[in-house]
Write a structure and sequence with these properties.
Layout lengths: L2 H15 L3 E7 L10 E6 L3 H19 L5 E3 L6 E5 L3 E6 L1 H7 L1 H4 L4 E5 L4
Parallel strand pairs: 2-5
Antiparallel strand pairs: 1-2, 1-6, 3-4, 4-5
Helix pairs in contact: 1-2
C-alpha cells in the first residue's frame, strides 16, 4: 500500500474514533492539475464535535504514521475545518455547511468512495 493510501486509511480511522460520519474519500489522483491526490470529507454534529474530530485525526495519524498536518484552518468557528497533509486534504463540516459547499459534486470527475458509518 502506498504511503498516501495508508495516510488516507489512518485519517478515516481517526474520524471514526470520534464518531465522525458520512465519510467520503475522493480520489483525485487521475485528474490533472489538482492540489492534492485525495480529499477526505466528513461531518460532525456540532462545532465541538467538528473540533474533537480534528484533534483526534491529528493525534491518531501522528501516533500511527508520524505525519502532522502542514496547516489546519477553520477551528475558530469550526463549521468547516480543513487539514492539509500535502497529498491529502481533510474537510470536516457541520451538516448544513457541507450541503452548502457540496465539495463532492465540485469534484465530479473524482472516484468517490463512501465509507459506511460505524454504529
Amino acid at each position: 500500500m502506498s504511503e498516501t493510501k495508508e495516510l488516507v486509511k489512518e485519517i478515516v480511522e481517526g474520524i471514526q474514533e470520534k464518531k465522525g460520519y458520512k465519510i467520503i474519500v475522493a480520489d483525485l489522483s487521475g485528474i490533472g492539475d489538482t492540489i492534492c491526490k485525495y480529499f477526505v470529507i466528513c461531518q460532525g454534529n456540532s462545532t465541538s464535535h467538528v473540533s474533537a474530530i480534528t484533534e483526534e485525526i491529528k493525534e491518531f495519524v501522528r501516533k500511527r504514521t508520524g505525519e502532522k498536518p502542514t496547516d489546519t484552518e477553520g477551528l475558530n468557528n469550526a463549521e468547516w475545518v480543513a487539514m492539509d497533509y500535502s497529498d491529502v486534504l481533510v474537510h470536516i463540516f457541520l451538516p448544513e455547511t457541507r450541503v452548502h459547499y457540496d465539495l463532492e459534486h465540485l469534484w465530479a470527475d473524482a472516484k468517490l468512495t463512501t465509507i459506511p458509518d460505524l454504529d
